Fold each of these.
Amino acid sequence: MARPKSDDKRSAIMVAAMRVIVKQGLSAPTAVIAKEAGVANGSLFTYFPTKADLFNQLYLELKLGMAAASLQEVPTNGSLREQFSKMWSNWMRWAMAEHDKRRALALLGVSDDITRETRMSAHQAMVHIAALMERSRANGPMRDAPLGLVGALMNSMAEATMDFMAQDPVNADAHSKVGFDALWRMLG
Amino acid sequence: MARPKSDDKRSAIMVAAMRVIVKQGLSAPTAVIAKEAGVANGSLFTYFPTKADLFNQLYLELKLGMAAASLQEVPTNGSLREQFSKMWSNWMRWAMAEHDKRRALALLGVSDDITRETRMSAHQAMVHIAALMERSRANGPMRDAPLGLVGALMNSMAEATMDFMAQDPVNADAHSKVGFDALWRMLG
Amino acid sequence: MARPKSDDKRSAIMVAAMRVIVKQGLSAPTAVIAKEAGVANGSLFTYFPTKADLFNQLYLELKLGMAAASLQEVPTNGSLREQFSKMWSNWMRWAMAEHDKRRALALLGVSDDITRETRMSAHQAMVHIAALMERSRANGPMRDAPLGLVGALMNSMAEATMDFMAQDPVNADAHSKVGFDALWRMLG
Amino acid sequence: MARPKSDDKRSAIMVAAMRVIVKQGLSAPTAVIAKEAGVANGSLFTYFPTKADLFNQLYLELKLGMAAASLQEVPTNGSLREQFSKMWSNWMRWAMAEHDKRRALALLGVSDDITRETRMSAHQAMVHIAALMERSRANGPMRDAPLGLVGALMNSMAEATMDFMAQDPVNADAHSKVGFDALWRMLG
DNA sequence: CATGAATGAGCGTTCATTCAT
DNA sequence: GATGAATGAACGCTCATTCAT
C-alpha cells in the first residue's frame, strides 16, 4: 500500500488543493494549498513529489468518487431505462452536492499536468457506467457507432447539463430531466 | 505618420500566439509568442496592452472564424435538416482543417483571462447558428426546454464529436455523421 | 546660437518636463513628457539627445530663472540689509508663485543625472546673490568662515523656509520674515 | 522551527542596501542588493515584502541610529549651550564616521517610496533633539516662531554643514564649529 | 524635421522545489 | 518526519532610444 506517512495529512492536502483550485485556479501556489491544509510549505512535498503529482492523484480520486456516487443504489433488476435514469440522477445530484469537487475536476481535466496514464486510470473507474451505456445503445440507432464516441457524447451532455443546473439551481431537477431525456432520445 | 501599426504584424502575433498556445499551453511566455511572430519582445505590447488582451482578442477572432466557416454556403431554401446538416458538416470540417485553431480555442475557453464581455461578444457571433438550432427544435420534444440548455447540449456534442474525429481522422466523416444523427435525434 | 529647430517645441518640452516631474517624479517616462508637450515620442530626442540632457538643461534654466527673479528690483542704493531683504523676499515670492518650478528644481537637484558641470554653471547664476551675501557677512562673525559654507547655510535656510511656507501658505509672509531674520542673525 | 529567519541576514540585506544605494542610487536593482548581501535574489523578499518596504525600514533604522548617536553622552547637568553643543558635535561626528549612512539617508529622504508613516516614526526618534532645540530658543528671538520652522531651519543647517565637512574633511572640526556657532546665533 | 512603431535590456516579484534545523 | 527559510529561474511589462516612413 503506497500510503506512507500520515493519511490524515495526505487527505487534508487533497481537500485543500480542491478548495484552493476552485477559488484560485490551477495556478494556485503550493504554498497556499499547504496553508489551507494546515501543514507547512515543504510538507506538501513529502506527500506528493511534485505539484503535478498532487494534481494527478486529486483528479483520480475525484473521478473515482464521482463514479462511485453515480452508481449508488442503481437497481440491478429494474429496466435498463430505470437503471440508466437512476445513474444519471445520481450523477447530477453529486454534481450539485459536490459543486467544488466538480469544478475542480473540470479544471483538472483540461490541465496539461494530468498525464495520459491518469486519464486512463480514471477511465477505468467509469467501466460500470460505460457498460450501462453500452447496453442502452445496443439495440438502438447507435449500435454501430464507436463506443468511445458514444461515451464521449454522453459525457459531454452530462457536463453541459451539470453546468446549466449549476447556473440555475432552482430548476435543477427539471434541467436534469431534460438532459436525461435528450440523452435517451439520442441513444434510442 | 511614421511606420503605421501593421495589420500584418498584428495578425502574425495572433497566429503565433495560437500556435504557441497549442504547443505550450496558456502559460506560454509572451517572449516565445513574440519570437514565433518574428517581432521583438516589447513589440507584442504595442499591439496588445497585456497578455490577457491578446488572449481575449484571439479568442474572439477564432470564434468568429469558426462561426463564419460554419455558415458558409448553408442553403437558405433547403429543408431545415439540410441547412442544419450543412452547418454541422462545415463546423466539423473547420475543426479538422483548423485543428490548431480549435485546440487554442478550447484552451482559451477555459482561461480565467477571457472576460465576460469577450464571451458575450463571441456568443453574438453564434446567433445564426443558434437561430438554426432554435428552429430545429421548435416542434420537437425539446420545444419547452430552456434554449440555453439546448444550445449547451448541442455545443458539447459538437465538441465531443470533433475531439473524436481528431483522434481518428481516417473515419472523420463517419464520426461526423454519427454526431449529427445523434444531435438530430435528440432534437427531435 | 545653439538653438536649432523650433524654439517653441524646445521650450514646450521643457515646460512639460517640469510639470510631469512634479506630478510623477524623475522617473516619469519621456513618452509622458512628450505627450504633455504635444510632440511625438521621438521628437523629444531631436531636441535633447538624452533624457539626462533634458534634465540638465531644465535644471539650469530653472535655476537661472530663480536667480533672475531673486534679483529683480533690488535697490542698488539702499542699505545692505534692505538689498538683502528685498532679494530674500523676491526669492520667497518666486518660490510661492512658481511652486512647480521649485518642486522640480528640488527633485532635479538630488538627481544623479545632473552633472557637476551643470551644477557649476548653475552656481554661476548665483554670483550676484553670493556677492550680496559676501558683503553681508564681511564684517560679522562669519567673516572668516569659508564662503562656500556660508552660502550653503544660506541656501539651506532658504529651502527650509520655502518648504515651510508651502505647507502653510496662509502665513507665508510671516514665515518668510522669520527665515530672513534668522539668516540675518546668523550673518550678524 | 526550521531555519529561523536570521537577524544576521536581515541586517546584511540592510547594510547591503545602504551601500548599494550610495553607489548606484535608489534605482539600484534588488538583485544587486541581494548579491551584495550574499543572499539569493528571492531571499530578499522573505525579509522584506517589497523593495519599498526595505527602503522604509532602512530609512527608519538609519534615522534612529543617527538620533541615538547624536544624544550619546549629552550632559544632563551642563548648560543648555553645552548640551546642545555636545549634541551637535555628536551629530556631525556621526555624519563623518558614517558617511555612507548619511548619503543613503539623504537619498531615501527624498524618495517617494518612504511613506508618511515612516517619516512620522522617524520624527518620533528626534523628539529629544527637538526638545533641546525647543529649550534653546525659548527665551530668544525665535520664541514666537513656529516650532516646525525652527526645527526645519536647524535641520537644514546641520545638513549643509555636514555636506561641507564631507567635501573638506581635513577641516571638518572647524566647519562643525562654524555651523554650530551660526545655529546658536540664529537661536539667539 | 516629425512621427510613432520597433527594439531589447532590464526590473520587481513569484513560486516550485530543496535543504538546514 | 515536520518545518519554513533559501534558492534562482522565469515572467509580464516598461521605457530610453533608434529608425523607417
Amino acid sequence: MGRLRRVFDALMDWYGPQGWWPLGPAVRYHKGKYDQPSTGREVFEVYIGAILTQNSTWTGACQAMGRLRALRAMTPRALLALPDEVLEEAVRPARYLRQKARYLRAIASFFLLLKGRIPSREELLTVRGVGKETADSILLYAHHQPVFVVDAYTRRVMAALGVIRGDEEYDTIRALFEKELPADEILYNEYHALFVEHARRYYSKKPYGTGDPLITGFPVKRTRQKDTA
DNA sequence: AGCCAGGCTACCG
DNA sequence: CGGTAGCATGGC
C-alpha cells in the first residue's frame, strides 16, 4: 500500500528535487551522493536556520543569516560573543527577535558541548527553543538521520487527502510516514521539502486544498474519516 | 490592507 | 493532559 509513496512520486514529478538544506545545487542529488555538510560550520548553519525559520519565511531566515555572516557570527563561539542588541538586530528579519536571539544562544552552547557528536532527539528537545519539528529537522538536514519531519503543511495536505484527521499527535504522524516509507534520508529530505513547495501553493489560504491536483488527480478514499475512533 | 509564514514556551482550565 | 495567548517582522 504505497499511498504515501505515490504522493511523493507525484510531487517529485511536478516540482523536481528541491535540494534542501540547500547544500549545493540539485544536480548533486542525481549523482547519488547527497552533498553532505561535512564541516562543523555547515552543520551549525543548519541548526541556526532551523531556529530562524520557525513560523517564519525562508527569505526572512536567509536575511537574518546574511546579517550573522556579515558579523562573522556563523560559528557558535562568535555568535555567543555578540552583545544581545547586536544579535537581536541580526535576527530581526526572522521575527521574534528577542526569543530567537535567546534560542540561538541556547543552541550555540549546546552545539559546543557536542564537540562534533550527533545528538539524540531527546537531547535536542532539552534545548530551549527546540521543539519536535526543529529537532527532527536538525537530525534530518544536519545529521542525515532518516527522521521524517512533520509540519503544519504536512498536516494540512494529509488531512485534505483523508490520510489523517489532522489533530493527531506529532509523533503519531511521524510514525505513520516512517512506517509506510523506507528509512531513507534522501527520501525524507525531499518529501518534506516537496510538501512545503506544494502546500505553499495550495494550502496557504483557506479553504485549504482548493485546486490541489493531488486531490483531483489522486482519488483517495475519504469516505470514513469520522466513524472510526 | 490584510493575511500569513517550514513553531515554541508558558500558563491557563 | 489539551488548548491557546504571546512572541519587538516583512513580503506578496
